Each structure stands twice: as structure tokens, then as C-alpha cells.
From TrEMBL:
Origin: domain of life: Bacteria
GO BP: L-methylmalonyl-CoA metabolic process
GO molecular function: lyase activity; metal ion binding; methylmalonyl-CoA epimerase activity
Organism: Nonlabens ulvanivorans
Family in the record: Belongs to the methylmalonyl-CoA epimerase family.
Keyword Lyase: yes
NCBIfam families for the chain: metmalonyl_epim
Name used for this protein in its record: Lactoylglutathione lyase and related lyases
Keywords: Lyase, Metal-binding
Domain VOC residue range list: 4-132
Amino acid sequence: MLGKIEHLGIAVKDLEKANQTYEKLLGRKPYKSEAVESEHVMTSFFKSGKNKIELLAATHEDSAIAKYIEKRGEGIHHVAFNVKDIKAELKRLEKEGFKILNHEPKKGADNKWVAFIHPKSANGVLVELCQEIEE
């Protein structure tokens, strides 16, 4: 089953400007910035109480984030949920009829295994599943 909302992902054109905006909005600096080379994005993470916000900026014009911004503009890109067993959850959701974008989890930002559910399966919302990578 899906757990709590892990974070909201927000697509931005300029990460530095967006960081400044969210620093003012939330009254704090990001606690982490990280490149995810496989996705061609640079991320910044902010905490707001128990919640997290991930800003995502494209590092390559062919990345999914660049294409998203070109098509839809900046804004909420995805909602991420914590899961305890990402592979089991992917199987469960596929049996429920959801279109799975990643049948095998991949390493994402913030020390997580991630996989995505197609927005057409979830009322237009890209859903990310996140499982903490245990070392």
C-alpha cells in the first residue's frame, strides 16, 4: 500500500531562481541539492514541517522535465508516495489496471528507489513510488 506523501515534485526552468523563491516562501534554504544524471535533472529539496518539496530543473534539452516544461510550463510535476516494498507495489498497481512506466525501480534522488505510474492512469497526475535505499 502507498504510505504518506513523500514529496511534491515541481518542475522549474531555473533552479537558482526557484531556490530563491522557495527560500523566501518557506523561510529556509534547501537541505539538499543533487544531480540525477540518468534523468538529466538537478534537484533541490526543501522541508516544510514534515513535508518535502523537490524542485527539478532540466540539465539537458531532451530530458523529461524539459519536455514537460515546454508542453505545460512550470508547476507541479508529480506526487511521490513512500512505499515499503516498491516491487510488490508495482505488481499490485499493475494488477489494479494502472499503467506502469518503470517495471524495475531505478535509483532516484534523496537515496530512494523510484518508479512512476503514468498520469493517464491517475486522473492526469504523475505518481512516483519511493522506497528508501537501505545500505
